[in-house]
Amino acid sequence: MSDLINKERVLEALRGVKGPSLSDDIVSLGLVSEIVIRDGKVYFAISVDPARARELEAMRQAAEKVVKDLPGVDAVTVTLTADREAGASPTDGNGAGKGAPPPGSPVARGAAKAARSRTGAIPGVANIIAVASGKGGVGKSTTAVNLALALKSRGLAVGILDADIHGPSMPRLLGIKGQPEQLASNELKPMEAFGLKVMSMGFLVDEETPMIWRGPMVMSALSQMLTDVAWGELDVLVVDMPPGTGDAQLTMAQQVPLAGAVIVSTPQDLALIDARKGLNMFRKVNVPVLGLVENMSTFICPHCGGRSDIFGHGGAKTDAERLGVPFLGEVPLTLAVRETSDAGNPVVVSAPESDAAETYRAIGAKVWAELERHKSAAPAAPRIVTES
Ligand SMILES: Nc1ncnc2c1ncn2[C@@H]1O[C@H](COP(=O)(O)OP(=O)(O)OP(=O)(O)O)[C@@H](O)[C@H]1O
Ligand SMILES: [Mg+2]
What does the angle CA 127 – CA 131 – CA 137 come to, to the nearest 5 degrees? Predict the structure, then answer.
């Protein structure tokens, strides 16, 4: 079926899409990157002036639609990108840009950086760990932030990277306003809250602006947040992953030099099925799974202190045992966790005596122990190989 489709047909269809000035089509304007076709999936990028990215979303959608309508095309990923191949200006009419990287890898110069980071070359950062889940809304960001603070309370130097560039949550969760400063080295200085170094796309874009960069651009943004930020010396960098196990997540799992992953799940069976997907994704790319966290476990009533298992209970623990990964702990569903998250004052620092904070600290201790265990078990892991 995918034989029906080739680059020429895609380019032909794209000639019907007008460029930003509406005078010419995007192919003649030389705005279309290398087109990559794999198993009926088509990937390409359109170069745009980043200042106009928002208004050009319609153009991106038009390009997506004309290609999607071609016979033999199952899916299309079109990215608007500010990265431009040398020599291809928007008006030089050079035709399709040359040498853009294949799908799943960042567009243009992000590629080299991502390749570097795969070899562990984020100077000073000893361990990068991902907090992930198979589906959204299970409390991944809340877990990431409290886990980071729990690790910090052990005296470790900790950073947190919000990799959810479509829906960044760290500015809100940590109550951070303002923008990172650009240093003389051209690197961005991470923001700071509660002693954590923090980087999020949320600091760089207006919260009201919908995120329209997709696919390869996501990776490019992420690799820049990893490598163009002055993280300094960190024992652990916690990465709050975007929800799901799609191409973008897989690419990140592959290209970020992860020391391990923590999977968050709610007790519902369905979420556990999703958690398994998350687990398998990391296994596929040989990233050790440090363990499973059951979030929104027992509900603690704020009035009477009574406990009830609204979403069922213990599913993650049984699952972790069955899947042979460590069970890291159960975080109760409490009003305090939600309110402190929304107020930018995470429970580990705002109510350190609470059960929830205690649970997060216990999770932090297990995560650190697992990291140490994996480190001694695999001394030649890619993350400690220096760049050659
Ligand atoms: N243990 C908990 N008790 C009470 N509320 C919680 C708990 N964990 C998370 N929440 C709340 O659930 C909501 C979703 O949490 P969060 O944003 O951390 O999830 P997420 O998995 O990162 O979501 P997304 O997929 O959108 O990134 C938030 O309002 C958060 O405050
Ligand atoms: Mg989140």
Answer: 165
DSSP strands (E only) in 82-195:
125-132, 158-162, 191-193
Summarised one tens digit per residue, pLDDT across range 319-342 is 788 888 999 999 988 888 888 988
Ligand 1 mean position, distance from CA 218 (Å):
22
Query: What is the phi/psi pair of residue 373, to 5°?
Result: -65, -45
pLDDT at 217: 67
Is the shortest distance between the CB of 351 and ligand 1 below 6 Å?
Answer: no
Of 158, 114, 116, 78, which is closest to residue 253 (Cα–Cα)?
114
| CB proximity list for 167: less than 8 A, separation 6 or greater | 211, 242
Give the ligand 1 atom nearest the CA of 342: 31
pTM of the model: 0.69
For the CA of 144, the nearest atom of ligand 1: 18
One-letter amino acid identity for 346? P
3-state secondary structure (DSSP) of residue 168: coil
Q: How far is the CA of 360 from the centre of ligand 2 (A)?
A: 17
Whether 314 lines ligand 1, by a CB cut-off of 6 Å, is: no
